[in-house]
Amino acid sequence: MRALVVLIVVAAIALIAGDRIAVVVAQNEIGRRIAAEYALDRDPAVDIGGFPFLTQAADGRYETIDVRAGEWSAQDVTVRDLRLTLTDVTAPLADLIAGDTSTLVAAGATAEAVVPYDTVRRFADDGVRDLSESPDGLRVTGTFPVEGLPFPVPATIVFAMAPTADGIELTPTSVQAAIGGPAVPISVLSSTLAFTIPLQDLPLGAEITAIRAAADGLHVSAAAADVHFADLP
Fold first, then answer.
1. Residue 202 to residues 27, 63, 110: CA-CA distances in angstroms?
2. CB-CB neighbours of 58 under 10 Å
3. Cα(185)–Cα(178) distance, rounded to whole angstroms?
4. 96 DSSP 8-state letter
5. Is the pLDDT of residue 8 over 50?
6. Helix (H) or strand (E) holding 209
7. What is the pLDDT of residues 71-84, one digit of tens each?
């Protein structure tokens, strides 16, 4: 009986070890493919959810695959803390182990990233000094040109943020003049201070769905459906 128990324990350990080896191989191949497709400096961290892995692999279907890619750049915009989550993924294990991820298909994908304020500042007016979060959008403090006045005016402006075909569009929605400064109507600022950050989408074809200002930058969320690795640009 004791020998049987030992045999069962050894077999269980071997199965678990084999399971973990297989999942690491698959994760590494997915990471290499994403790094190559998007010119990342290093392979992202990939985590295939669910346990055991081999039972998912036998069916060729995986619940979730999380990818943490760190920094990513496109169109002169660099984002930080890029995270991708693939859901309801199908891919033959043999293909993954062989280094072929072209057959990987995800029913859905989400992406999250941070656009640092240093990046935002490059597309804003030269008079911008500080950027911070606000309940109504992005709060921007600085000295701005005003139509009809021969000098720039110190003020705090709140910008609304929205995804467009050209990227993240920021439009002034309210303005508060500095103490002692002249009152400025928002109508004279909207056309001159509105700007766009050229970030149309994120990897895997995910289109931006939400933007919010936070302490460290603009937090961007995006989503995609029916993602085929074979069709990645």
1. 21, 22, 9
2. 10
3. 13
4. H
5. no
6. strand 206-214
7. 888 878 989 999 88
- My answer on whether 104 and 127 are in the same domain is no
pTM of this structure: 0.77
Q: Name the 3-class secondary structure at 31.
A: helix
Do residues 73 and 160 share a domain? Answer: no
For residue 3, count other CB atoms closer than 10 A to its CB: 7
| Identity of the amino acid at 9 | V
Share of the chain above pLDDT 70, in %: 65
User: Could you identify the residue written with the tokens 């439009």?
Assistant: 171
Encode pLDDT of 188-222 as tens digits. 665 678 899 999 878 888 899 999 999 999 999 99
Single-letter amino acid code for the residue at 7: L
Phi, psi of 144 (to 5 degrees): -125, 145
Q: What phi and psi values does residue 222 have, to the nearest 5 degrees?
A: -145, 165
Please write down the long-range contacts of 94-97, taking CB distance under 8 Å and 24 or more positions apart. 96/25, 96/26, 96/29, 96/30, 97/22, 97/25, 97/26, 97/29
Report how many domains make up the chain: 2
> Do 66 and 80 belong to one domain?
yes
